[in-house]
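Handout, section B. The chain below has 200 residues.
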Amino acid sequence: MSDRLPADLGNRSATNASTTQSVPSKKARQRPSRSRTAYQLSVVIDTREQRPFEFPAEVNTMVGTLATGDYSVQGWTPFISVERKSWADLYSCFTGTNRERFERELARLSDMRYPAVVVEASHGDLWKPYIYRVGGGKTRRSQVPPLVAQKSIIAWSWRYRIPFYFCQDRERAMKWTLLLLQDAVRVMLREQKESDRATI
């Protein structure tokens, strides 16, 4: 993976904007063009995200079609992607066809330079049986044991080289997502600066 970064950065408002991203070729991912170093971060929310985070008012947001994941940053979508999972959604991915679908999604996410999965649950939930609600206010216990959930997270983390962040609740998951996006951009800008200095 080259250190060259995308060129389409700048102070861009997202209030009335939308973006469509195609899946970049490996060559495009390896040789992005030179970037500028000062801009206002705009969070891109995928059009398929059913329950988007409510970010602080000072954070620019825009809706667009991402190649994978639910959140990225305008100008950096081929490099950065965060997938959001509620606890119920993630638990449904531990078995059956949902697992196959999620693993295909993780495979796409692993092509990103900075991928992550943010979970709206605590790490301690992995150690407890999953209880869910059914009709009439009744509850049921999932037949998927906690050990399967634990080993699935470990296997996915190793296989796809993607970190899973358990954030306890939705509010903290939103804050963590924003921190991840900001820091990924910061690191890539620093790498670009070092690369530019080395070429002088």
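Note. Residues 10 and 104 are 33 Å apart (CA to CA). Compare this with the example in section A.
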